[in-house]
Design brief:
414 residues, mainly beta, 31% strand, 5-stranded mixed β-sheet, Immunoglobulin-like, Sulfite Oxidase, Chain A, domain 2, binds molybdenum atom, binds the ligand Nc1nc2c(c(=O)[nH]1)N[C@H]1C(S)=C(S)[C@@H](COP(=O)(O)O)O[C@H]1N2
Protein backbone atom coordinates (compact mmCIF):
# COMPACT_ATOMS: atom_id res chain seq x y z
CA UNK A 1 0.00 0.00 0.00
CA UNK A 2 1.15 3.57 -0.51
CA UNK A 3 3.18 4.38 2.56
CA UNK A 4 4.21 7.57 4.24
CA UNK A 5 7.77 6.97 3.09
CA UNK A 6 6.86 7.77 -0.46
CA UNK A 7 7.12 11.35 -1.43
CA UNK A 8 4.30 12.01 -3.82
CA UNK A 9 5.61 15.50 -4.45
CA UNK A 10 8.50 13.93 -6.32
CA UNK A 11 6.03 13.53 -9.12
CA UNK A 12 8.10 15.08 -11.83
CA UNK A 13 11.20 13.15 -10.99
CA UNK A 14 11.45 9.62 -12.16
CA UNK A 15 13.88 8.12 -9.74
CA UNK A 16 15.20 5.27 -11.87
CA UNK A 17 17.81 5.68 -14.55
CA UNK A 18 17.60 9.44 -14.61
CA UNK A 19 15.11 9.23 -17.46
CA UNK A 20 13.43 12.52 -18.16
CA UNK A 21 9.96 11.22 -17.77
CA UNK A 22 6.72 11.93 -16.07
CA UNK A 23 5.22 9.59 -13.54
CA UNK A 24 2.74 7.09 -14.81
CA UNK A 25 -0.37 8.69 -13.43
CA UNK A 26 0.46 12.11 -14.74
CA UNK A 27 1.39 10.91 -18.20
CA UNK A 28 -2.23 10.09 -19.10
CA UNK A 29 -1.13 8.67 -22.41
CA UNK A 30 -0.12 12.02 -23.79
CA UNK A 31 3.58 11.38 -23.57
CA UNK A 32 3.30 7.88 -24.93
CA UNK A 33 5.00 7.46 -28.26
CA UNK A 34 2.86 5.41 -30.54
CA UNK A 35 4.85 3.73 -33.26
CA UNK A 36 4.41 1.06 -35.88
CA UNK A 37 2.46 -2.07 -35.16
CA UNK A 38 4.69 -5.07 -34.47
CA UNK A 39 5.20 -7.63 -37.19
CA UNK A 40 2.32 -10.00 -37.51
CA UNK A 41 3.29 -13.15 -35.68
CA UNK A 42 2.09 -16.19 -37.60
CA UNK A 43 2.02 -18.41 -34.53
CA UNK A 44 -0.60 -16.41 -32.67
CA UNK A 45 -4.35 -16.91 -32.93
CA UNK A 46 -6.26 -14.04 -34.48
CA UNK A 47 -6.70 -11.14 -32.10
CA UNK A 48 -3.67 -11.83 -29.95
CA UNK A 49 -1.10 -9.06 -30.15
CA UNK A 50 -1.52 -8.73 -33.89
CA UNK A 51 -3.48 -5.50 -33.81
CA UNK A 52 -1.46 -4.27 -30.88
CA UNK A 53 -0.13 -0.80 -30.56
CA UNK A 54 3.49 -0.34 -29.64
CA UNK A 55 3.60 2.40 -27.07
CA UNK A 56 6.28 3.67 -24.72
CA UNK A 57 5.69 4.22 -21.03
CA UNK A 58 7.92 6.90 -19.50
CA UNK A 59 11.48 5.57 -19.33
CA UNK A 60 10.65 2.51 -21.45
CA UNK A 61 11.00 1.59 -25.13
CA UNK A 62 7.83 0.92 -27.13
CA UNK A 63 6.13 -2.27 -25.92
CA UNK A 64 2.86 -3.96 -26.81
CA UNK A 65 0.14 -2.31 -24.78
CA UNK A 66 -2.53 -4.64 -23.41
CA UNK A 67 -3.89 -2.25 -20.81
CA UNK A 68 -3.04 1.19 -19.53
CA UNK A 69 -4.66 1.26 -16.10
CA UNK A 70 -3.17 -0.75 -14.53
CA UNK A 71 -0.25 -0.83 -16.98
CA UNK A 72 0.21 -4.15 -18.75
CA UNK A 73 2.78 -4.04 -21.55
CA UNK A 74 4.52 -7.00 -23.12
CA UNK A 75 7.73 -7.27 -25.11
CA UNK A 76 7.47 -7.84 -28.86
CA UNK A 77 9.02 -11.09 -30.05
CA UNK A 78 12.02 -9.28 -31.55
CA UNK A 79 13.21 -8.40 -28.01
CA UNK A 80 14.09 -12.04 -27.33
CA UNK A 81 16.85 -12.20 -29.93
CA UNK A 82 19.01 -11.06 -27.01
CA UNK A 83 19.36 -13.59 -24.21
CA UNK A 84 19.45 -10.76 -21.68
CA UNK A 85 16.43 -8.50 -21.95
CA UNK A 86 17.32 -4.80 -22.02
CA UNK A 87 15.79 -2.87 -19.11
CA UNK A 88 13.84 -0.50 -21.31
CA UNK A 89 12.27 -3.43 -23.20
CA UNK A 90 11.42 -5.48 -20.14
CA UNK A 91 7.68 -6.16 -19.84
CA UNK A 92 5.53 -4.32 -17.33
CA UNK A 93 2.74 -5.88 -15.33
CA UNK A 94 0.69 -4.35 -12.50
CA UNK A 95 -2.53 -5.26 -10.75
CA UNK A 96 -3.07 -1.86 -9.20
CA UNK A 97 -3.28 1.56 -10.79
CA UNK A 98 -1.85 3.80 -8.11
CA UNK A 99 1.90 3.46 -8.72
CA UNK A 100 3.80 6.20 -6.92
CA UNK A 101 7.34 7.15 -7.84
CA UNK A 102 9.47 6.12 -4.94
CA UNK A 103 12.21 8.42 -3.72
CA UNK A 104 15.19 6.21 -2.83
CA UNK A 105 16.52 8.76 -0.35
CA UNK A 106 13.42 8.52 1.86
CA UNK A 107 12.39 4.95 1.01
CA UNK A 108 12.21 2.57 3.97
CA UNK A 109 11.74 -1.17 4.00
CA UNK A 110 10.04 -2.44 7.16
CA UNK A 111 11.01 -5.96 8.22
CA UNK A 112 9.03 -7.60 11.00
CA UNK A 113 5.83 -9.51 11.74
CA UNK A 114 4.80 -11.99 14.43
CA UNK A 115 7.42 -14.41 13.19
CA UNK A 116 10.34 -12.02 13.72
CA UNK A 117 11.83 -11.27 17.14
CA UNK A 118 13.82 -8.15 16.20
CA UNK A 119 11.86 -6.05 13.69
CA UNK A 120 13.74 -3.20 12.03
CA UNK A 121 13.70 -0.81 9.09
CA UNK A 122 16.31 -0.25 6.46
CA UNK A 123 16.96 2.40 3.86
CA UNK A 124 18.33 2.16 0.34
CA UNK A 125 21.97 2.73 1.37
CA UNK A 126 21.64 0.12 4.13
CA UNK A 127 20.36 -2.39 1.60
CA UNK A 128 23.30 -1.74 -0.69
CA UNK A 129 26.05 -1.36 1.89
CA UNK A 130 25.16 -3.56 4.87
CA UNK A 131 24.49 -6.84 3.08
CA UNK A 132 26.77 -8.96 0.94
CA UNK A 133 25.76 -8.29 -2.67
CA UNK A 134 24.88 -11.27 -4.82
CA UNK A 135 24.23 -11.40 -8.56
CA UNK A 136 22.33 -13.88 -10.64
CA UNK A 137 20.60 -14.06 -14.00
CA UNK A 138 16.96 -15.10 -13.77
CA UNK A 139 13.84 -15.18 -15.89
CA UNK A 140 10.94 -13.09 -14.64
CA UNK A 141 7.90 -14.68 -16.24
CA UNK A 142 4.28 -13.82 -15.56
CA UNK A 143 2.23 -16.87 -14.59
CA UNK A 144 -0.23 -15.84 -17.29
CA UNK A 145 2.32 -15.44 -20.08
CA UNK A 146 0.76 -16.81 -23.32
CA UNK A 147 -2.73 -16.84 -21.80
CA UNK A 148 -3.97 -15.37 -25.09
CA UNK A 149 -2.96 -18.64 -26.76
CA UNK A 150 -5.03 -20.78 -24.38
CA UNK A 151 -7.48 -23.19 -25.96
CA UNK A 152 -10.24 -22.92 -25.01
CA UNK A 153 -10.01 -19.18 -24.44
CA UNK A 154 -9.85 -18.02 -20.81
CA UNK A 155 -10.55 -14.60 -19.30
CA UNK A 156 -7.71 -12.34 -18.14
CA UNK A 157 -5.00 -10.22 -19.75
CA UNK A 158 -4.54 -11.76 -23.22
CA UNK A 159 -0.76 -12.02 -23.12
CA UNK A 160 1.05 -13.43 -26.12
CA UNK A 161 4.63 -14.64 -25.66
CA UNK A 162 6.26 -11.51 -24.21
CA UNK A 163 5.15 -11.32 -20.57
CA UNK A 164 8.65 -12.36 -19.56
CA UNK A 165 12.21 -11.12 -19.51
CA UNK A 166 15.65 -12.28 -18.42
CA UNK A 167 17.97 -10.01 -16.45
CA UNK A 168 21.06 -10.01 -14.28
CA UNK A 169 19.81 -9.03 -10.84
CA UNK A 170 21.98 -7.72 -8.03
CA UNK A 171 20.82 -7.45 -4.46
CA UNK A 172 20.94 -8.64 -0.89
CA UNK A 173 19.97 -12.17 0.13
CA UNK A 174 16.52 -12.17 1.68
CA UNK A 175 17.93 -14.75 4.10
CA UNK A 176 20.48 -12.24 5.43
CA UNK A 177 17.74 -9.65 5.98
CA UNK A 178 15.54 -12.21 7.74
CA UNK A 179 18.47 -13.33 9.90
CA UNK A 180 18.82 -9.77 11.14
CA UNK A 181 15.09 -9.70 11.96
CA UNK A 182 15.48 -12.82 14.12
CA UNK A 183 13.24 -15.23 12.25
CA UNK A 184 11.40 -17.44 14.77
CA UNK A 185 10.95 -21.16 14.26
CA UNK A 186 7.14 -20.66 14.19
CA UNK A 187 7.41 -18.57 11.01
CA UNK A 188 5.79 -20.41 8.10
CA UNK A 189 5.46 -17.74 5.41
CA UNK A 190 7.17 -14.47 4.51
CA UNK A 191 4.82 -11.86 3.06
CA UNK A 192 5.74 -8.93 0.80
CA UNK A 193 4.01 -5.63 0.14
CA UNK A 194 4.86 -2.98 -2.41
CA UNK A 195 4.32 0.77 -2.63
CA UNK A 196 1.58 0.54 -5.25
CA UNK A 197 -2.03 0.53 -4.15
CA UNK A 198 -5.52 0.22 -5.54
CA UNK A 199 -6.91 3.34 -7.20
CA UNK A 200 -10.41 2.12 -6.42
CA UNK A 201 -11.02 0.33 -3.16
CA UNK A 202 -12.67 -2.52 -5.04
CA UNK A 203 -9.31 -4.11 -5.86
CA UNK A 204 -7.61 -5.72 -2.89
CA UNK A 205 -4.06 -4.50 -2.15
CA UNK A 206 -1.41 -6.70 -3.77
CA UNK A 207 0.40 -8.62 -1.04
CA UNK A 208 2.04 -12.00 -1.66
CA UNK A 209 3.82 -14.55 0.47
CA UNK A 210 6.42 -17.26 -0.01
CA UNK A 211 6.94 -20.39 2.06
CA UNK A 212 9.82 -19.92 4.50
CA UNK A 213 11.96 -22.51 2.68
CA UNK A 214 11.86 -20.49 -0.55
CA UNK A 215 12.42 -17.20 1.29
CA UNK A 216 15.56 -18.65 2.89
CA UNK A 217 16.95 -20.00 -0.38
CA UNK A 218 20.26 -18.18 -0.88
CA UNK A 219 19.16 -17.32 -4.44
CA UNK A 220 16.09 -15.38 -3.26
CA UNK A 221 17.19 -11.75 -3.18
CA UNK A 222 15.97 -8.21 -2.66
CA UNK A 223 17.33 -6.67 -5.86
CA UNK A 224 18.32 -3.04 -6.35
CA UNK A 225 20.07 -3.46 -9.70
CA UNK A 226 18.96 -4.89 -13.00
CA UNK A 227 21.57 -5.39 -15.74
CA UNK A 228 23.99 -3.11 -13.91
CA UNK A 229 21.55 -0.23 -13.53
CA UNK A 230 19.01 0.86 -10.95
CA UNK A 231 15.67 -0.86 -11.50
CA UNK A 232 13.46 1.02 -13.94
CA UNK A 233 10.51 2.64 -12.19
CA UNK A 234 8.05 0.26 -13.88
CA UNK A 235 10.09 -2.78 -12.88
CA UNK A 236 10.10 -2.00 -9.18
CA UNK A 237 12.43 0.86 -8.25
CA UNK A 238 14.07 1.06 -5.80
CA UNK A 239 13.99 -2.63 -4.79
CA UNK A 240 12.06 -5.74 -5.70
CA UNK A 241 11.98 -9.36 -4.69
CA UNK A 242 13.63 -11.91 -6.99
CA UNK A 243 12.31 -15.44 -6.41
CA UNK A 244 14.33 -17.25 -9.10
CA UNK A 245 12.59 -20.17 -10.73
CA UNK A 246 9.16 -19.13 -9.47
CA UNK A 247 6.64 -17.27 -11.60
CA UNK A 248 6.76 -13.50 -11.30
CA UNK A 249 3.66 -13.07 -9.16
CA UNK A 250 5.97 -13.45 -6.15
CA UNK A 251 8.50 -10.90 -7.42
CA UNK A 252 7.08 -7.95 -5.46
CA UNK A 253 8.08 -4.56 -6.87
CA UNK A 254 8.67 -1.31 -4.94
CA UNK A 255 9.03 -3.39 -1.76
CA UNK A 256 7.94 -1.58 1.41
CA UNK A 257 7.30 -4.35 3.91
CA UNK A 258 8.54 -7.86 4.64
CA UNK A 259 6.46 -9.72 7.19
CA UNK A 260 7.39 -13.00 8.82
CA UNK A 261 4.08 -14.77 9.41
CA UNK A 262 3.09 -17.53 11.79
CA UNK A 263 -0.23 -17.98 9.94
CA UNK A 264 -0.88 -18.38 6.22
CA UNK A 265 -1.54 -15.12 4.39
CA UNK A 266 -5.24 -14.98 3.65
CA UNK A 267 -6.09 -12.60 0.82
CA UNK A 268 -7.47 -12.63 -2.72
CA UNK A 269 -4.00 -12.86 -4.30
CA UNK A 270 -3.12 -16.02 -2.38
CA UNK A 271 -6.47 -17.79 -1.90
CA UNK A 272 -8.22 -17.03 -5.20
CA UNK A 273 -5.78 -15.76 -7.81
CA UNK A 274 -2.57 -17.46 -8.92
CA UNK A 275 -3.78 -20.96 -8.16
CA UNK A 276 -3.72 -24.05 -10.35
CA UNK A 277 -5.56 -27.36 -10.03
CA UNK A 278 -3.73 -29.64 -7.61
CA UNK A 279 -1.44 -32.18 -9.32
CA UNK A 280 -2.23 -30.92 -12.85
CA UNK A 281 1.31 -29.66 -13.47
CA UNK A 282 4.50 -31.61 -12.74
CA UNK A 283 5.64 -29.10 -10.10
CA UNK A 284 8.25 -30.36 -7.69
CA UNK A 285 8.20 -27.27 -5.46
CA UNK A 286 5.36 -26.98 -3.01
CA UNK A 287 3.74 -24.25 -0.99
CA UNK A 288 2.15 -26.52 1.60
CA UNK A 289 0.68 -23.88 3.94
CA UNK A 290 -1.40 -22.50 1.04
CA UNK A 291 -2.54 -25.78 -0.50
CA UNK A 292 -6.16 -26.93 -0.53
CA UNK A 293 -7.44 -30.34 -1.67
CA UNK A 294 -8.49 -28.94 -5.06
CA UNK A 295 -5.90 -26.25 -5.81
CA UNK A 296 -2.38 -25.15 -5.06
CA UNK A 297 -0.63 -21.80 -5.48
CA UNK A 298 1.38 -21.64 -8.67
CA UNK A 299 5.04 -22.19 -7.83
CA UNK A 300 7.90 -22.86 -10.22
CA UNK A 301 8.12 -22.08 -13.93
CA UNK A 302 7.46 -25.02 -16.26
CA UNK A 303 10.14 -25.87 -18.83
CA UNK A 304 9.54 -23.84 -21.96
CA UNK A 305 10.99 -22.57 -25.23
CA UNK A 306 10.39 -19.93 -27.85
CA UNK A 307 11.41 -19.64 -31.49
CA UNK A 308 12.79 -16.13 -31.90
CA UNK A 309 14.07 -16.25 -35.48
CA UNK A 310 12.95 -16.06 -38.17
CA UNK A 311 10.20 -13.72 -37.07
CA UNK A 312 8.35 -13.55 -40.37
CA UNK A 313 6.50 -16.45 -41.94
CA UNK A 314 8.27 -16.20 -45.28
CA UNK A 315 11.83 -17.02 -46.24
CA UNK A 316 13.60 -17.04 -49.58
CA UNK A 317 14.18 -20.29 -51.42
CA UNK A 318 17.82 -21.22 -51.88
CA UNK A 319 18.99 -19.42 -48.75
CA UNK A 320 20.43 -21.00 -45.65
CA UNK A 321 17.89 -21.00 -42.86
CA UNK A 322 18.81 -21.16 -39.19
CA UNK A 323 16.11 -21.42 -36.55
CA UNK A 324 17.03 -19.63 -33.33
CA UNK A 325 15.39 -19.45 -29.97
CA UNK A 326 15.58 -19.56 -26.22
CA UNK A 327 14.68 -22.17 -23.60
CA UNK A 328 14.30 -21.87 -19.84
CA UNK A 329 12.95 -23.63 -16.78
CA UNK A 330 12.77 -23.25 -13.02
CA UNK A 331 16.49 -23.64 -12.47
CA UNK A 332 17.05 -27.36 -12.94
CA UNK A 333 18.80 -26.37 -16.15
CA UNK A 334 18.10 -26.91 -19.85
CA UNK A 335 19.43 -30.31 -20.91
CA UNK A 336 18.31 -30.26 -24.55
CA UNK A 337 16.27 -28.47 -27.16
CA UNK A 338 15.00 -30.61 -30.01
CA UNK A 339 13.53 -29.66 -33.34
CA UNK A 340 10.92 -31.53 -35.34
CA UNK A 341 9.99 -30.93 -38.95
CA UNK A 342 7.41 -33.73 -39.14
CA UNK A 343 4.83 -32.62 -36.61
CA UNK A 344 6.57 -34.22 -33.65
CA UNK A 345 7.25 -37.72 -34.99
CA UNK A 346 11.01 -37.31 -34.98
CA UNK A 347 13.27 -34.88 -33.16
CA UNK A 348 16.84 -33.68 -33.70
CA UNK A 349 18.93 -31.83 -31.13
CA UNK A 350 19.57 -28.13 -31.54
CA UNK A 351 22.87 -26.58 -30.50
CA UNK A 352 22.71 -24.89 -27.10
CA UNK A 353 24.32 -21.50 -26.55
CA UNK A 354 26.29 -20.38 -23.50
CA UNK A 355 24.94 -20.99 -19.99
CA UNK A 356 24.35 -17.75 -18.12
CA UNK A 357 23.16 -19.47 -14.96
CA UNK A 358 20.56 -22.06 -14.17
CA UNK A 359 17.62 -19.63 -13.94
CA UNK A 360 18.47 -17.85 -17.20
CA UNK A 361 17.22 -18.08 -20.77
CA UNK A 362 19.49 -20.40 -22.72
CA UNK A 363 19.89 -19.59 -26.39
CA UNK A 364 19.85 -22.33 -29.04
CA UNK A 365 20.06 -22.66 -32.79
CA UNK A 366 19.39 -25.24 -35.47
CA UNK A 367 20.29 -25.14 -39.14
CA UNK A 368 17.68 -26.29 -41.63
CA UNK A 369 20.15 -25.97 -44.48
CA UNK A 370 18.48 -24.72 -47.67
CA UNK A 371 14.87 -25.83 -47.32
CA UNK A 372 12.93 -26.69 -50.47
CA UNK A 373 10.15 -24.50 -51.79
CA UNK A 374 6.86 -25.02 -49.99
CA UNK A 375 5.35 -24.96 -46.53
CA UNK A 376 7.19 -26.12 -43.51
CA UNK A 377 6.33 -26.29 -39.84
CA UNK A 378 9.10 -26.30 -37.26
CA UNK A 379 8.52 -27.44 -33.68
CA UNK A 380 10.90 -26.79 -30.79
CA UNK A 381 10.81 -28.67 -27.50
CA UNK A 382 13.02 -28.13 -24.46
CA UNK A 383 13.84 -30.76 -21.85
CA UNK A 384 15.30 -29.90 -18.47
CA UNK A 385 17.86 -31.69 -16.31
CA UNK A 386 15.19 -33.61 -14.37
CA UNK A 387 13.63 -34.93 -17.57
CA UNK A 388 10.62 -32.62 -17.80
CA UNK A 389 9.70 -31.42 -21.27
CA UNK A 390 7.04 -29.41 -23.01
CA UNK A 391 3.66 -30.93 -23.81
CA UNK A 392 2.35 -30.82 -27.40
CA UNK A 393 -0.65 -28.87 -26.14
CA UNK A 394 -0.81 -26.58 -23.10
CA UNK A 395 -2.70 -28.07 -20.15
CA UNK A 396 -6.02 -26.24 -19.90
CA UNK A 397 -6.66 -24.60 -16.52
CA UNK A 398 -9.11 -21.90 -15.47
CA UNK A 399 -6.64 -19.01 -15.41
CA UNK A 400 -4.54 -20.06 -18.40
CA UNK A 401 -1.32 -20.33 -16.37
CA UNK A 402 1.87 -22.19 -17.27
CA UNK A 403 1.33 -22.19 -21.04
CA UNK A 404 4.32 -24.21 -22.19
CA UNK A 405 3.20 -26.13 -25.27
CA UNK A 406 5.99 -26.89 -27.77
CA UNK A 407 6.95 -23.84 -29.81
CA UNK A 408 5.75 -23.87 -33.42
CA UNK A 409 6.58 -21.81 -36.46
CA UNK A 410 4.95 -22.18 -39.86
CA UNK A 411 7.26 -21.03 -42.64
CA UNK A 412 6.66 -20.58 -46.34
CA UNK A 413 9.75 -21.03 -48.47
CA UNK A 414 9.11 -19.08 -51.66
N1 LIG B 1 4.23 -4.09 -6.38
C1 LIG B 1 3.86 -4.98 -7.30
N2 LIG B 1 4.69 -5.97 -7.59
C2 LIG B 1 4.36 -6.89 -8.51
C3 LIG B 1 3.10 -6.84 -9.18
C4 LIG B 1 2.22 -5.76 -8.85
O1 LIG B 1 1.11 -5.65 -9.37
N3 LIG B 1 2.65 -4.85 -7.91
N4 LIG B 1 2.78 -7.81 -10.09
C5 LIG B 1 3.56 -9.07 -10.07
C6 LIG B 1 3.38 -9.83 -11.28
S1 LIG B 1 1.96 -10.75 -11.42
C7 LIG B 1 4.32 -9.87 -12.27
S2 LIG B 1 4.10 -10.83 -13.66
C8 LIG B 1 5.59 -9.13 -12.13
C9 LIG B 1 5.90 -8.31 -13.37
O2 LIG B 1 7.17 -7.75 -13.26
P1 LIG B 1 7.62 -6.56 -14.23
O3 LIG B 1 6.50 -5.57 -14.30
O4 LIG B 1 8.88 -6.03 -13.70
O5 LIG B 1 7.84 -7.19 -15.58
O6 LIG B 1 5.59 -8.26 -11.02
C10 LIG B 1 5.04 -8.80 -9.85
N5 LIG B 1 5.25 -7.87 -8.79
MO1 LIG C 1 2.00 -12.00 -13.34
Amino acid sequence: MPSAEIDRRQLLRLSAGGAAAMPFLASAGASALASQAPPLDPRLPAGVATEALLEALPGKAPLIKLAYRPPNYEAPLSVFKDTITPNDQFFVRYHLSDIPNVNAATWRLAVGGEGASTPFELGFEDLKMKYEPVELVAVCQCSGNRRGLAEPHVAGVQWAVGAMGNARWKGARLKDILDKAGLKSEAIEIAFDGADGPALDTTPDFVKSLPVWKALDPDTIVAYEMNGEPLPHFNGFPARLIAPGWTATYWMKHLTRIEARTKPLDNFWMKTAYRVPARLFPSTQRFVSQESPATTPITEIMVNSLITSPIGAEVKVGEMLTIEGIAWDAGFGIAAVEISQDGGKSWTSAELGPELGRYSFRSWQFSLGRPAKGNLEVLAKATNAIGQSQPMKALPNPAGYHHNAVARLAITVA
